[in-house]
Amino acid sequence: MTDHLIFTPDDVDLTRSPLRRSLDAPTFVLGAFNPGFTRLESGNLLLMVRVAEALVQPVVDGHARTIRWTAKGYVLDRFAVDAIDMADPRQFELKGRRNRLLGLTSLSWLLPVELDPTGDRVVAVHYDRAIEPQASWQDYGIEDARISRIGTRWYMTVCAVSAERHSTALYTSDNALDWRCEGMVLDHQNKDMLLFEGLVGGRFLALTRPLGECYFAYPGTSEWAGGPSINFAQSPDALHWKPIEAPGIRARAGSTSALKVGGGTPPVLTDAGWLTLYHGVEQQASVGVYRTFWALFDRDDPTRILGVEDRVPLIEANAALTAHLAHQMYLPSPVVFSTGMVDGGDDWIVASGEADLACRITRVGKGGVG
């Protein structure tokens, strides 16, 4: 296994940020991370990097300020500091509300970064093809792209954040560089949607991860821990989705990922079946420890799970990679968040977000997965 950081906050040229068109307040890159990942027709690789842009002065005159997209340009909203909890550097929570209401300390947009075929160096950064919010249901940002090539087209899902809803949007492309927004495909609080890289029985298949404020408990004798889980859904056209009743990947009681699990890389078809990498979270501090594990599904009926590794991680956070960025670190727990995987010959080339800060490339031998 080999590792390196390929793109960091210092590599983003904020003079070319889409926010510069209308926002005068100075900003900085909180993180350039959690990239969608695919191989282009040319053989080069593409990272669709999440750029989280934050205000240099988030608090002014006793008020926390946040960035919001509008049809007329980006604006700043204000919240009284004594009315919010600012313990998490990524977000704040409004106090005294019956429903949990959050604000974000940054607004995210997507930056296409082209790499050489091995993922060892950046060959182009496509600021002219950056993807930013374009509707009120995306007005607090778009996050955590996942890219799947299905046939001759590329499909990209993103998390769209707004006060209206927390949803999943779909983008499509004929070259993975020029994208068209197809609109919302999953409604409130459904994250980490991963399209299988190929049709199954003539239909699109996806992994999803619905969220909520509460979950129902399994019996005390169950092997499952409960909480967020990875589910299956199917569609005739990638736009209209129906959940599949068979359970997917669930947090197992006693494992190091018992707090929650979530989707990582779009499933790819191998000789052994459909292979995906996912994240499992162990309780620690306010964020938790994020690690990458693998799962394998049957090629003809992916709801038949052939194997899940949830105890020995495939990829873990590596503090040595971000040591030179220590002054920019803001998370208290080790986090690696794998978001894409492509064939690299004898290896899988895996793209991840490291510490919610930078983009990491890891080469994993195929013999050790699945």
Return the CATH architecture. Answer: 5 Propeller
Helical content stands at: under 10%
Form type: globular
CATH T-level topology: Tachylectin-2, Chain A
Secondary-structure class = mainly beta
User: CATH H-level name... which superfamily?
Assistant: Glycosyl hydrolase domain, family 43
- Count of extended strands: 27
Average pLDDT taken over every residue: 95
Poorly predicted residue ranges: none
Q: Which sequence of SSEs, written as H and E, runs from N to C?
A: EEEEEEEEEEEEEEEEEEEEEEEEEEE
Beta-strand proportion: over 45%
Distance between the termini: 16 Å
Count of separate structural domains: 1
Mind summarizing the main beta sheet? Answer: 5 strands, antiparallel
Per DSSP, the total helix count is 0
Radius of gyration: 20 Å
**Assembly annotation:** single chain
CATH class: Mainly Beta
InterPro entries: Glyco_hydro_beta-prop_sf, Mannoside_phosphorylase
Family: Belongs to the glycosyl hydrolase 130 family.
Keywords: Glycosidase, Glycosyltransferase, Hydrolase, Transferase
Pfam families: Glyco_hydro_130 (PF04041)
Protein architecture, described:
This protein is mainly beta and 370 residues long. The protein has one domain (2-368): Glycosyl hydrolase domain, family 43 (Tachylectin-2, Chain A, 5 Propeller). The chain has strands at 2-7, 27-39, 45-55, 59-60, 63-70, 73-80, 84-85, 91-94, 102-104, 106-115, 122-125, 141-150, 153-161, 166-173, 180-186, 190-195, 204-210, 231-235, 242-243, 260-263, 268-270, 273-282, 289-297, 305-309, 336-344, 347-354, 358-365. The strands form seven sheets. Strands 20, 21, 22, 23 and 24 form a five-stranded antiparallel sheet that branches. It has a four-stranded antiparallel sheet with strand order 1-27-26-25, with no helix packed on it. A hairpin with an 8-residue loop joins strand 16 and strand 17. It starts with a strand and ends in a 5-residue tail after the last strand. 43% of the residues are buried.
